[in-house]
Design brief:
Helices cover about 50% and strands about 25% of the residues. The chain has eleven helices and 14 strands. The chain has a six-stranded antiparallel β-sheet with strand order 7-6-5-10-9-8, sandwiched between helices. A hairpin with a 2-residue loop joins strand 3 and strand 4.
């Protein structure tokens, strides 16, 4: 059986077995206390925020003795902190041998800290690279502009371990406004917060420079009303190909540790990659839009050259037959056929005209969305529904209720399109409605004069309502 390793050598070897920084430093502190017989051992850092560390200590109670021994810890050329001991168990003073042993552990601590930093930096870099790749993939799959910004904000918040991920964009007045916010909790009044023109922070951001803040609540450069909620923060320009898309802000909670230099570097690189992905996604969307326009134009030409000309020729032939025919039945039948063909020609021409127009952007208001839904139904119905609004529809109806209203509208219009004999459709959205229980509400009414499904005559009214 081999001799056991000397305690110091065993402690040094144990220190190097773990690459996690906090675990490594705890090994060092515990070894220092055990080898010297100290009641208390601790490792304090000069810059706690740099590695996300506070003081590392043994489980013993705080010392009540003036007998303290401490040695500095250096990581390469940097003064990292101090390793110190207090109060031996037997009450004796610390010896030169204890000090020498502490120096050995301090040197080993410096080496272990350097290795742990390299390992953690590699892990962080890998996470940020994977995050940037995931954002690029998501943006190039065709997300809407608002969804794309939320994807960037949310992924950056998770990677940075921030309290919020915020996107700001320029306002017409020359300031910047928060347009998207991803938070652990309800963003509340964060969205819509504005940095006014002339702010020192704004000058840096518009110049394409990142801004790093130790404490948002106390930094005089911060002027927004939500700044008191946050502590350390990074504000990173989203800039690509000379174009400033906006700013990515990553604030942490008050009292959280500051961002390390490595985190600042990786977040800045992420912002550059995300900005490039946003530009590429926008370019891809423009190419797809152009392809759709070209395809619509081709369909319009084909409809005109083939369908309309054939229908027109058929109509001329039927008119000629009608003039030669002697029987009343033949005359009436041909007259109906000619009318039907002329109506079809008019509808196809209308479709061609619609195809030749550039598609409108998706509306953002409830009023605009309702009009778009009824216009889409008109192509199937062969007639344009009459649409009426009562009250301040856009400002009174919240987004969630608006989404439910649109679902009900689509369902009602789909049923109407399948009903025979429809010649009139009326859609009404009333934001001043009073519900049966007396509460204020919004009411959707869709009426058509087609045949009822139960065979009981004509005319059907569908009503949907919800409280405001």
């Amino acid at each position: 059986m081999s001799d056991p390793l000397p305690p110091l050598l065993e402690a040094v070897l144990a220190v190097g077995t773990d690459l996690e920084l906090r675990t490594t430093l705890q090994h060092i502190v515990d070894s220092a206390a055990e080898l010297t017989g100290a009641r208390y051992a601790a490792l304090g850092t000069r810059d706690p925020g740099q590695d996300g560390l506070l003081e590392i200590r043994t489980a013993s109670a705080a010392p009540r003795t003036p007998d303290v021994l401490g040695v500095p810890i250096r990581v390469q050329d940097e003064e990292f902190g101090d390793l110190y001991l207090a109060g031996k168990d037997d009450g004796s003073p610390f010896t030169a041998e204890d000090e020498q042993l502490l120096h050995v552990l301090a040197v080993q601590a410096g080496i272990a800290i350097g290795n742990a930093r390299l390992y953690e930096a590699a892990r962080q870099r890998e996470r940020w690279i994977e995050g940037a790749a995931a954002v690029t993939t998501a943006l190039l799959t065709g997300e809407r502009a608002a969804d794309a910004l939320m994807t960037v904000a949310e992924r950056a918040r998770v990677l940075a371990d921030a309290a919020a991920g915020v996107i700001l964009q320029r306002t017409a007045e020359g300031g910047m406004e928060i347009v998207t916010a991803s938070t652990y909790e309800d963003p509340g009044d964060i969205v819509g917060t504005t940095i006014q023109p002339g702010s020192p922070v704004l000058v840096q951001l518009l110049g394409g420079e990142p801004v790093f803040i130790d404490d948002s609540a106390t930094d005089p450069r911060m002027t927004t009303h939500v700044r008191h909620r946050f502590g350390p923060s990074m504000m990173l320009p989203l800039q690509a190909e000379g174009r400033l898309i906006g700013t990515l802000a990553l604030p942490r909670r008050r009292g959280d540790r500051p961002y390390t230099p490595v985190e600042r570097l990786l977040a800045t690189q992420f912002a550059s990659q995300a900005a490039l992905a946003l530009v590429l996604a926008d370019a891809q969307h423009s190419r797809e839009r152009l392809a759709v326009l070209e395809d619509r134009d081709r369909i319009a030409r084909d409809l005109h050259d083939l369908v309309v000309q054939r229908l027109f020729a058929t109509g001329m032939m039927l008119e000629s037959t009608q003039r030669r025919g002697a029987g009343t039945d033949v005359h009436d039948t041909l007259g109906k056929a000619v009318d039907e063909l002329q109506s079809t020609i008019q509808e196809v021409r209308t479709t061609i005209f619609a195809l030749q127009q550039p598609p409108a952007e998706a509306p953002t208001t409830l009023r605009g969305t309702v009009l778009r839904e009824t216009a889409a139904a008109a192509a199937l119905l062969g007639l344009k529904p009459s649409t009426h609004f009562t009250g301040a529809v856009d400002s009174r109806v919240p987004d969630r209720t608006a989404a439910q209203l649109l679902t009900a509208l689509r369902r009602a219009l789909t049923t109407t399109c399948r009903r025979p004999g429809v010649s009139r459709v009326e859609v009404t959205v009333d934001a001043t409605a009073s519900l049966p229980d007396g509460r204020e509400g919004v009411r959707l009414t869709v009426y058509d004069d087609g045949a009822r499904e139960d065979g009981g005559g004509t005319g059907t009214t569908v009503t949907w309502q919800a409280p405001l």
